[in-house]
Design goal:
The chain has seven helices and four strands. The protein is α+β, with helices and mostly antiparallel strands and about 200 residues long. It has a four-stranded mixed beta sheet. It is elongated. The chain binds protoporphyrin IX containing FE.
Length: about 200
């Protein structure tokens, strides 16, 4: 049976254990870093649960009605018309020879956004070199001067665009003939997508 003395002793052991554990955590930078990561992950889990599935994507949706799906190829000059400043506000970005409709990411690429310089342009070279300086060249950029690591980086970025945004068509090289797509078909025929 526990006497008042043993209860008191237990409480003292418990509090000194707790104090020791806290000292261990707060006096070691490594443990503090791990603690911050754990708190951040818990915050993310709780936030996602509260907002429900798809809530984050919904937050990315523009308030205005969704634009009809677009399917066509572009020269660099034609692409320039879709920087979000035109009446329908559609924003297109070229990556690795392919064009993506990034309108739902307007807060990034739309006018005034942090990556607005990618809008209506081929962003491949920017993504490879981590630059947001506008690439105003009117000619198709074959990226042939870039190294293997830079090309890998472009492909990694493209994977992200492919996952998040709609594929629209190809970026046309000088003199390349555009593909005629069946715009009535909902078929996800990406056979023409450039894989370079
Ligand atoms: C100080 C430098 C930078 C900071 C702090 C930063 C921060 C961020 C953050 C927080 C996001 C995620 C936004 C979200 O998902 O809510 C993001 C996305 C992105 N960043 Fe940066 N960034 C920086 C520089 C750059 C540079 C130099 C580039 C150019 C290659 C770049 C390209 C992108 C792109 C393409 C996205 C994806 C947007 C999307 O989801 O469509 N960032 N950045």
């Amino acid at each position: 049976m526990e006497t008042p003395n043993t209860v008191e002793a237990d409480a003292t052991v418990e509090s000194s254990f707790l104090a020791g554990a806290l000292r261990e955590i707060f006096y070691s930078p490594m443990n503090l870093a791990l603690l911050s990561i754990i708190c951040f992950l818990i915050y993310k889990i709780v936030r996602d649960r509260c907002e429900g599935p798809g809530a984050r994507d919904a937050a990315l949706q523009p308030a205005e009605p969704e634009l009809p799906k677009m399917r066509r190829d572009f020269t660099i000059k034609e692409l320039r018309e879709f920087d979000g400043n035109q009446p329908d506000g559609r924003v297109l970005v070229g990556v690795n020879g392919n064009v993506y409709d990034v309108t739902k990411g307007k807060r990034f690429y739309g006018p005034g956004g942090p990556y607005a310089t990618f809008a209506g342009r081929d962003a491949s070279r920017n993504l490879a070199t981590f630059s947001v300086v506008a690439n105003d060249k009117d000619e198709y950029d074959d990226l042939s001067d870039l190294g293997a690591m830079e090309m890998d980086s472009i492909r990694d970025w493209e994977m992200q665009f492919k996952e998040k945004y709609e594929y629209v068509g190809k970026l046309l090289r000088n003199g390349e003939v555009p593909t005629i797509y069946d715009n009535d078909s909902n078929d996800e025929d990406d056979n023409n997508k450039k894989d370079e």
